[in-house]
Prior knowledge:
By secondary structure, the protein is mostly helical.
Amino acid sequence: MPKKANFSKDFLAKIKEQLLAKKEDLEQELKAISEPNPANKADYEATFPDLGDKPDENAAEVTEYTSNLTLEITLEKALKDVNEALKRFDEGGYGICKYCNEPINEKRLLARPVSSSCIECKKKLTLEV
Length: 129
């Protein structure tokens, strides 16, 4: 049975507030460069800019679209991490390492609220032992 973290209510409220603010920021950034995929609410599709019909404008459109596509992928991943952290909050498992079932250090959660693993397990996973 997974352990339960013994974080203070104030600490958890602070972290949840940060996560909700980050979620809102990410969604706004995504809306600026893409549109939600109607078939999958967790997916966005970069919009193709319309800068004109001249060759240099067409080249700028492709360049901007390529940049937006890369940014969209990065923002979607960050949003997915935030949503998963919020889900762990709702399910009562926030702050517990998904590998060793031990509480994650508060300093780590303050630095990276979406963390799902403790530093020791993360080091093992990235071969930093």
